[in-house]
Amino acid sequence: PLRVGAFTRGEVESGDPRLDEIAQELGATEIRRVFRDGGRFAERRRRYGLHLWYDIRFDEEIPVSRAGAEFAALPGVAYAEPVYRIQRLDAAAIPAEALYEPPVPAAEEGQWPFDDPMLSQQWHYYNDGTISGTEAGADMNLFEGWKTTAGSPAVIVAVTDSGVQFDHEDLAANMWVNEAELNGTEGVDDDGNGYVDDIYGWNFVRDSGTIVPEDHGTHVAGTVAAVNNNGIGVCGVAGGTGNGDGARIMSMQIFEGDESVGDTNAECFVYAADNGAVISQNSWTWTRLSSLPRAYDEAFDYFIENAGMDDSDGDGVNDRQTGPMKGGIIIFSAGNDYSSRPSFPGADDRVVCVTSMMPNYMKAGYSNFGDAADIFAPGGAGSTDTEFSMEGQVYSTDITDAYGYKAGTSMACPHVSGIAALIVSRYGVGQPGFTPDKLREILLRSYRSVGQYQKTPA
Q: What pTM did the predictor assign?
């Protein structure tokens, strides 16, 4: 392995003399690991070659193509690629009114399955057509799904996004909590997973267990699993019935303010698999890429093959199923570029790619679509979809114990992750052997055709 750390020009000492020579020529300032050793998961990570990946920072005036070519020519270097910047996926939105609590409309007995006062604003779960411009039935038909299951705490969804407000009044009870770290010694890796004080997940921007709450990740998390039937706020797709039985949310923070993590984001899929998540929820994208960077290839395979599994004897080979599914599923938004081609990573064949529907069955104007897309879900109307007010967007949790509207394929994607959590709750929990392939089959055949509702432009 190379020695890692920050250094000034002329002081590169990675342990590889030829690499040091090139790094000095390029004005390199740091070498760091892309993937940590992973504590008790170290041998499993080594089996995937994750210990061989490094990021090298160099002078910004040096062309990336030159640096890549020089490093790629070194003996033993199999891949040399740029670190690409990632972006969140919000459509241009109409300003939301946070903490708006209208009275629940009069309804027939049994119409509202839970007592959350803002459920009536969540047309994306149940649309009765009363909001101006909407079509009754343009929704998830979620109330029917809840008759079978509303979630399970055995199902962990990794929300890879900006930080989730883990103490939000409508999310706290459904957060994943690393009890060993919560009840352990500050500054110590109490559970031996290679990360210190990772109580609610990990902040990959800071490389720290400190989750910094932001609106985008909090909104996405609420759609997945805001606490149901607790008499406050909104409902989550897999938020349970108010009896501690909702799916759990693990916060994988890859954005903070204007910063994002580039290629080191790949580690979040590895962390999620090692720490119990079986569903990876992703409302972000790259622009202008036609394939995955190789580091993500490795990380995706790791999550899909290792989630829900344990290497009980430390030899790097999975020999025991510990989660509700034997492997993991990755779900991505298609992108908001008004394009007939979904963006990567959503376009990758291994993931479920989600496009965005408005409350009249129509594709949202901003939403990417095309052959690589897998499923259509409610994402709300954007700023160019002028037939709707803000009530045509998706309503969910927001920071500072607030609630608000947002639109985008970012908002469509967590609906599908929530449904995936319901499927695993029903068919995987307590039933060993349930696989991501079975989940994907159920998920992608459990749809309603909405082709008959599409309107031909005049």
A: 0.92
Map tokens 């020519």 to a residue.
73
The backbone torsions φ and ψ at residue 375, rounded to the nearest 5 degrees and listed phi first, read -155, 150
C-alpha gyration radius of the chain? 22
pLDDT by residue (tens digit) across 46-70? 999 999 998 888 887 888 888 889 8
Q: Please name which of 34, 32, 87, 28 lies closest in space to residue 61, comparing C-alpha atoms.
A: 28
Between strands 279-282 and 329-333, the pairing is parallel
pLDDT tens-digit profile of 356-413? 999 999 999 999 999 999 999 999 998 888 889 899 999 999 999 999 999 999 999 9
Alpha-carbon span 335 to 343, nearest angstrom: 6
CA distance 348 to 297: 10
Q: Token digits for 115?
A: 């007592």
Determine the angle formed by the axes of helices 294-306 and 267-274, rounding to 10 degrees. Answer: 10
Residue 158 and residue 201: Cα distance in Å, rounded?
8
